[in-house]
Design a protein that fits this description.
266 residues, alpha/beta, Rossmann fold, 2 domains, six-stranded mixed β-sheet, 9 helices, 10 strands, binds adenosine-5'-triphosphate, binds magnesium ion
């Protein structure tokens, strides 16, 4: 697999409103993501994961270093390249179905009928068929999140950037969507970066897990989950349990240690 996303020596500093205090959020940091790979980001709260995702999405500019997609340097958000952020937002003046269809608006490669077909596909996928004609201020928060996820998928970005997309969902919906995403990952091989605080979710979905230090973010550990627990076994629920529990314990230990450091430094 070629390097699809290439992050080279990027750093990011935020300044306080009076310009006197700086907060280093991302250290010179480099990493690559292969085409079709699903990378899960884990790390202490406030370490800079969202900032990093926003930089990959072109919504934030690194102060130094570069981010390239297919060898082409990123300069701002670019819909042609199809980078879409997980937003949780929906348009209250549009129905559930029209919100999802909105995701296809820039897809010039598709006919109207194809756009309808894709819209209905993702509408069903997130389990909102019955609510297709509801305005989104008349559905629950968890449903709105599913609308946002379906809209993002319908836009078919080259890279799917998901920042804790399932964080606020109930356990059943969460599990349902995790399996849908695994399915998409298997069928479409969609390059995905996914931030979560849920270690089990990370192990379930990942090809690879990247664990960040407390702020300023640097990579403290990368885990090739595919090499430890085959993806088919995770999908089928037949993963070797001792391996799974050992891996979970190991990751939790790393995160716990890092969290302690962050309290000491504060
Ligand atoms: N626009 C901004 N201006 C100033 N500081 C910011 C800005 N955005 C984020 N920060 C700071 O940068 C640091 C990293 O924030 P970020 O949201 O990237 O963390 P995170 O890893 O996504 O945390 P969480 O897991 O809680 O979502 C925090 O200290 C935050 O206060
Ligand atoms: Mg965040």
């Amino acid at each position: 697999m070629q390097n699809f996303i290439e992050i080279s020596d990027i750093s990011k500093t935020y300044w306080s409103a009076d310009g006197k205090t700086e907060t280093k959020v991302v250290l010179p940091l480099s990493m690559t993501v292969a085409e079709g790979e699903m990378v899960m980001f884990l790390g202490p709260s406030g370490c800079g994961k969202t900032t990093l995702m926003r930089m990959v999405g072109g919504l934030e500019t690194p102060e130094a270093g570069t981010i390239a997609l297919r060898g082409e340097r990123l300069a701002g958000p670019d819909r042609r390249r199809g980078m879409v952020f997980q937003s949780y937002s929906s348009f209250p003046w549009l129905t559930v179905r029209d919100n999802i269809r909105f995701g296809t608006r820039y897809r010039r490669d598709l006919s109207k009928a194809e756009k309808d077909e894709i819209t209905d596909h993702y509408l069903q996928m997130v389990g909102l068929g019955r609510y297709r004609n509801f305005y989104t201020n008349r559905i629950s928060g968890g449903m709105r999140q599913r609308v946002a996820i379906a809209r993002t998928l319908a836009s078919s970005p080259d890279v799917l950037l998901m920042d804790e997309p399932f964080g606020a969902l109930d356990a059943q919906t969460r599990e349902f969507l995790q399996f849908q995403l695994m399915d998409i990952n298997t069928r479409e091989k969609k390059t995905t970066i996914f931030v979560t605080h849920d270690v089990e979710e990370a192990i379930l979905l990942a090809n690879r897990i990247v664990i960040f230090s407390s702020r300023p973010a640097r990579v403290i550990r990368e885990i090739d989950v595919d090499a430890l627990i085959p993806a088919e076994d995770r999908r089928a629920g037949t993963a070797d349990m001792p391996t799974f529990f050992d891996l979970r314990a190991e990751i939790l230990k790393i995160i716990r240690e890092e969290y302690k450091h962050s309290l000491e430094d504060a």
